[in-house]
Specification:
Strand content: 35-45%
Largest sheet: 8 strands, antiparallel
Number of helices: 6
Oligomer: single chain
Distance between the termini: 67 Å
Helix content: 25-40%
Order of helices and strands: EEEEHEEEEHHHHH
Strand order of the largest sheet: 4-3-2-1-8-7-6-5
């Protein structure tokens, strides 16, 4: 069963300390990719810009600064409202985005209800896939027998 938790929201793309522009975006969480969150930015181009990163990173970033490299997240306040800052870096450029903390927290809470932390691996079916890969087939009996045991008995004969 595939569940999807989505939320449309407007982010602010910070261009300078004095100037930001709104960017419509969609946060998505899919149970078939339980460790990740997806953000699609609708920037007026033919196709949206997609970013995917660890759900755990966003969960932690709601409370304290975290991440390094391509994705960094931290909470802050702008005036009287809570904001989650997301810094993205790629070979194509860097972006600093501000998201409403209450909206992101509410969406994140919904993802945690759908797939509680620590239960993600059960959705991937790794145990069943490994069991299937490691289950011997009848033809495997040829490979599981010792090919040298018959030769050794013949070598010891007069």
């Amino acid at each position: 069963m595939r569940d999807v938790v989505e939320r449309e929201l407007e982010l602010m793309l910070v261009l300078s300390p004095e100037r930001s522009v709104p960017v419509p975006a969609r946060l998505s969480y899919l149970t078939d990719d339980p460790y990740a969150v997806h953000i699609a930015f609708h920037i007026g181009s033919e196709a949206p810009v997609h970013w995917t990163f660890a759900r755990e990173l966003l969960v932690e970033g709601v409370f304290r600064p975290c991440g390094y490299g391509d994705v960094r997240i931290w909470p802050t306040r702008i005036g009287d409202r809570g904001v989650i800052c997301v810094a993205l870096a790629s070979p194509d450029g860097d972006a600093l985005l501000e998201m409403d903390a209450a909206a992101v927290s509410a969406w994140m809470e919904r993802t945690l209800v759908v797939v509680p932390p620590g239960t993600e691996s059960a959705l991937l079916g790794l145990d069943a896939a490994l069991a299937e890969l490691l289950t011997p087939l009848p033809a495997d009996d040829l490979w599981l027998t010792d090919p040298w045991s018959a030769d050794e008995a013949q070598d010891g004969e007069p």
